[in-house]
């Protein structure tokens, strides 16, 4: 974890202020070239590396500030950037951040419009001075934290591990629709110490919600520590969670090690897959929840901790309790504030929101610009059950954006597991050129009528539907009598 990523929230706030004051886009990279903050176009690229060979990478290497007044002409600075052809930046200023003579990051100002470019050309010198001050402020913040002992490498193990990107309720897609009640509930308990238990299938956003509860609540300035209880081998889980005293077991460190509960002190611990905690460790977890103290492995004195617990699971905990696989007392201790995240198939009306969000995200990320889905594909994705929920949907969109050859993603671009569905839908799909032709001329009524006739013809000709009117009506969500009326109207009977 780099120094910049530890003060990510501070840096992002700063970038947003600069962008507002200067009317330019801002992006800030850490020493590894990872974007730790961004505004406008760059907002969606936070957390991702800047392209190899790019201008900002060069500044990281040379430690020298630089200006490019015309990206396409200045090939020397961007020579080996693989995104040069797609680059939409008109002008860019990059300024290094030096801490004790080492380049620890880069601040970039970007102009996308001719007006912004003009501003940068006119005021280049002033902007450089401004960035010099900004860079000094960031370094000051780093040094301040270092003094408090929260950054230095020698203290690495005592430093709270990565708390991750800040996320707020309003940023959750579906906050205004399918997740509204969930968020209302979460909002009520964000400042409480009571344990929250988030239930939901894999990929429904349990961890994201847990992070949002932490970031919105009074503990936001303290660590958010996520532990995936299913991913850590049983033998290690105890010391990971509760820490160990020096010399507690062979191979352990002499000075001992704090566990995740201690590292989360004053903050939140997120116990993901809590249903997978082995029975042998459950009494110890129960004790932490009840006493708010942890017993390090090999320790004699309990260590007090002030930690908010958010747990999550996709398992049927009640069934596990009945089968003796999960302790009943622990279950009640965890299940104080239950929150259930519905699977995507139970809130299909939100699917198009997620699709829009991920199209924008990956269109930007992969430099493909504005993208849309052909209506039959949109319909197909809306009908699919998404067993892997939002995570699966996101991956599917990422795949399709990669495959897309133009601005409209078609049914032929779907991942392999959707192909059988797509093939069925494909038999009734109207291609974009066909649709354009149907809708090209005439009154609104004539255009709609041509399109309607086209849809009905596809269904009648499709072997998949075999002329079965009842099924066709069902699929088109109209009554059988309406279907017959429309067939007659278009002389298709
Ligand atoms: N409401 C949402 N808005 C935007 N993205 C979301 C939302 N919910 C989930 N995601 C995205 O879906 C993916 C899965 O989310 P997350 O890891 O929080 O799910 P989970 O339920 O904890 O999954 P698992 O049980 O498998 O650990 C992530 O990439 C996350 O960013």
From TrEMBL:
Gene3D superfamilies: 1.10.8.60, Homeodomain-like, P-loop containing nucleotide triphosphate hydrolases. One of its GO terms (molecular function) is ATP binding. One of its GO terms (biological process) is regulation of DNA-templated transcription. Keywords: ATP-binding, Nucleotide-binding, Transcription, Transcription regulation. It comes from the Bacteria. It holds the Pfam family Sigma54_activat. CDD domains: AAA. Residues 172-402 form the Sigma-54 factor interaction domain. InterPro entries: AAA+_ATPase (IPR003593), AAA_lid_NorR (IPR058031), Homeodomain-like_sf (IPR009057), P-loop_NTPase (IPR027417), Sigma_54_int (IPR002078), Sigma_54_int_dom_ATP-bd_1 (IPR025662), Sigma_54_int_dom_CS (IPR025944). This is Sigma 54-interacting transcriptional regulator.
């Amino acid at each position: 974890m780099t120094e910049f990523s530890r003060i990510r929230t501070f840096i992002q706030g700063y970038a947003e202020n600069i962008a507002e004051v200067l009317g330019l886009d801002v992006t800030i990279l850490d020493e590894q070239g990872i974007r730790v903050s961004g505004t406008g176009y760059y907002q969606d690229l936070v957390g991702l590396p800047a392209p190899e060979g790019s201008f900002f990478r060069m500044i990281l290497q040379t430690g020298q500030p630089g200006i490019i007044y015309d990206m396409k002409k200045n090939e020397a600075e961007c020579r080996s950037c693989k995104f040069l052809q797609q680059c939409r930046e008109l002008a860019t200023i990059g300024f290094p951040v030096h801490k004790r003579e080492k380049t620890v990051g880069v601040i970039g100002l970007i102009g996308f419009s001719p007006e912004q470019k003009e501003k940068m050309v006119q005021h280049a010198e002033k902007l450089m001075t401004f960035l010099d001050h900004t860079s000094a402020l960031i370094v000051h913040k780093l040094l301040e934290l270092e003094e408090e002992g929260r950054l230095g490498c020698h203290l690495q193990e005592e430093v709270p591990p990565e708390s991750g990107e800040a996320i707020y309720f309003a940023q959750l897609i579906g906050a205004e629709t399918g997740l509204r009640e969930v968020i209302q509930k979460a909002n009520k308990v964000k400042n409480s110490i009571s344990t929250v238990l988030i239930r939901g299938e894999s990929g429904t956003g349990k961890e994201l919600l847990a992070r949002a509860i932490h970031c919105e609540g009074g503990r936001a300035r303290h660590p958010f520590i996520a532990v995936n209880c299913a991913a850590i081998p049983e033998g290690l889980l105890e010391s990971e969670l509760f820490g160990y005293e020096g010399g507690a077991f062979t191979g352990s460190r002499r000075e001992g090690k704090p566990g995740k509960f201690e590292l989360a002190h004053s903050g939140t611990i997120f116990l993901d897959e809590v249903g997978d905690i082995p029975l042998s460790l459950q009494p110890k977890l129960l004790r932490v929840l009840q006493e708010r103290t942890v017993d390090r492995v090999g320790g004699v004195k309990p260590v007090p901790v002030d930690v908010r617990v958010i747990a999550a699971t996709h398992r049927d905990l009640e069934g596990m309790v009945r089968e003796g696989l999960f302790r009943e007392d622990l279950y009640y201790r965890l299940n104080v504030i239950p929150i259930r995240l519905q699977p995507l198939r139970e809130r299909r009306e939100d699917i198009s929101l997620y699709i829009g969000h991920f199209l924008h995200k990956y269109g930007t990320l992969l430099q493909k610009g504005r993208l849309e889905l052909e209506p039959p594909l949109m319909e197909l994705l809306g009908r699919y059950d998404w067993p892997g929920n939002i995570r699966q949907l996101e991956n599917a969109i990422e795949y399709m954006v990669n495959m897309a050859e133009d601005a409209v993603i078609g049914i032929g671009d779907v991942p392999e597991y959707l192909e059988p569905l797509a093939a069925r839908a494909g038999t009734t799909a109207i291609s974009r050129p066909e649709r354009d032709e149907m809708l090209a001329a005439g009154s609104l009524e004539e255009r709609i009528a041509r399109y309607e006739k086209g849809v009905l013809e596809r269904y009648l000709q499709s072997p998949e539907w075999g002329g079965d009117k009842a099924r066709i009506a069902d699929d088109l969500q109209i009554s059988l009598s309406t279907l017959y009326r429309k067939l007659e109207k278009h002389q298709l009977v």
